[in-house]
């Protein structure tokens, strides 16, 4: 990292009274400059309770929208206007309405990886880190889960007493879809002593081959408490840098080196600098949508803190 541009970013953050939130998948250089790093739930929590005037999100667009919804009086920036999560756009309002009509008695729990409009139509939001905890606390046993079908499958396996209905039919993360059973079996044979940790967005056929299934921050916690010295990691490649930085004496093997979120990687040190300098790419959510979306997000926070 250029010392000059790094110092400029630090200075601009101070001048703008800005909080820089960095998702776990980002480049290590961004983590060095960030005020807080974490998964989507942890970042939402920080965005909700910050006293800073500005929030800058080194993450996907839906994360920045979440910050706007939870803090409508703050200015929220994203360094790249094209850092959009494809999965977040796989669940449309049209499909949402169809399932609401088909299952009128179901509770609708949508992944935080959705647009603000979808959050506004839901009963509650969930993340990969808190989904099991939240769904287990819901009084209703019939739950619509979208858009990620693999997360829905994982929830169903963990909570067989619930009737989990995944929607839409196509919902998935293209990065986590890259992990296939044959790759994992080869790695297991090559590194029999390694602990295999998978993200719940991987296919159920791959989940069954893992020793642990965790969100990205859950992976950091699992490695910290595990007695294993070697780990095979099934998630976006950016997390490997954080793991190696936090646990330098342990060995981390990416299950696939091409597990790259192209959209999040569009955020760089340089466009972060330009975003702060020019206050560009402000993220906005219409007030009527934000009001309803805030209810589902605040329910998520309340259920997670209860």
The number of distinct structural domains comes to: 3
How are helices and strands ordered from N to C?
HEHEHEHEHEHEHEHEHEHEHEHEHH
Count every helix, treating DSSP H or I runs of 4 or more residues as helices. Answer: 14
Radius of gyration: 19 Å
Number of DSSP E strands: 12
Shape from CA axes?
globular
User: What is the CATH C level class of the largest domain, in words?
Assistant: Alpha Beta
**Percent of residues in helical segments?**
40-55%
Largest sheet: 4 strands, parallel
Strand content: 15-25%
Short description:
With 306 residues, the chain is α/β, with parallel strands linked by helices. 44% of the residues lie in helices and 16% in strands.
Care to describe what's here?
- By secondary structure, the chain is α/β, with parallel strands linked by helices.
- It folds into three domains: 3-84 and 264-284, NadA-like (Rossmann fold), CATH 3.40.50.10800; 87-173 and 290-305, 3-Layer(aba) Sandwich (Rossmann fold); 176-254, Rossmann fold (3-Layer(aba) Sandwich).
- It is built from 14 helices and twelve strands.
- The protein has helices at 3-16, 28-33, 40-49, 61-70, 93-102, 116-121, 131-137, 149-158, 181-190, 204-207, 216-225, 238-246, 269-278, 287-305; strands at 18-23, 36-38, 54-58, 75-77, 107-111, 124-126, 142-146, 163-166, 195-198, 212-213, 230-234, 251-254.
- It has a four-stranded parallel sheet, sandwiched between helices. The chain has a four-stranded parallel sheet with strand order 6-5-7-8. A four-stranded parallel sheet has the order 10-9-11-12, covered by helices on one side.
